[in-house]
Write a structure and sequence with these properties.
Elements: H1 9-12, E1 19-21, H2 26-36, E2 40-45, E3 48-54, H3 55-64, H4 76-79, E4 86-87, H5 93-103, E5 107-112, E6 115-121, H6 122-132, E7 147-148, E8 160-161
Parallel strand pairs: 1-2, 4-5
Antiparallel strand pairs: 2-3, 5-6, 7-8
């Protein structure tokens, strides 16, 4: 099994991150994600990263938008996630996984100096794990003790081991 503390993000990240200006409409951002079959975009202002916009951000924003504006009436900056969470290419996959869990995010931008050079996502980490764990057995990761709650019981006093 691969030691994630030794694998550098720079070797596994997705390069060629697609960016979108913060002032463009969400409709444009959504179109970019669909055309490129991706879930997130780097948001820039004055050529600097200022946030990330995901499909989930768009949905979350639309639910809360009391004015019920259309995607063409909302600027990306209104719905993007901030602040930027980034690591350097020399950080490990383990660092990326820990950062995502701690920050409750699904991706990390990879920067070299002031330039975004890549991105790593939870999906990338899952794919890497799946490729490196081919010798692992599922039983090594299973929960041993399973609790079953019957739908007709309304009290935790009725929990039985199943």
């Amino acid at each position: 099994m691969t030691d994630w503390t030794k694998v550098k993000i720079g070797l596994k990240m997705t390069r060629g991150v697609i960016s979108v200006p913060s002032y463009v409409p969400l409709a444009y951002a959504q179109k970019l994600t669909e055309q490129n079959d991706i879930d997130r975009l780097n948001v820039i202002s004055d050529e600097h990263s200022v946030g990330v916009i995901t499909k989930r951000d768009i949905i979350r924003f639309l639910r809360k938008d009391v004015a019920r504006r259309g995607l063409d009436q909302i600027q990306v900056r209104e719905a993007m996630s901030t602040p930027i969470v980034s690591l350097q290419p020399t950080h490990s996959l383990s660092d990326a996984a820990k950062t995502m869990v701690e920050k409750q995010i699904s991706s990390v931008l990879i920067v070299d100096g002031a330039h975004v050079v890549g991105i790593i996502t939870k999906s990338d980490l899952c794919r890497e794990y799946g490729q490196s764990a081919t010798e692992e057995k599922v039983e090594n990761w299973m929960t041993r003790e399973v609790f079953t709650v019957q739908p007709t019981f309304n009290s935790l006093c009725h929990i039985s081991h199943g």
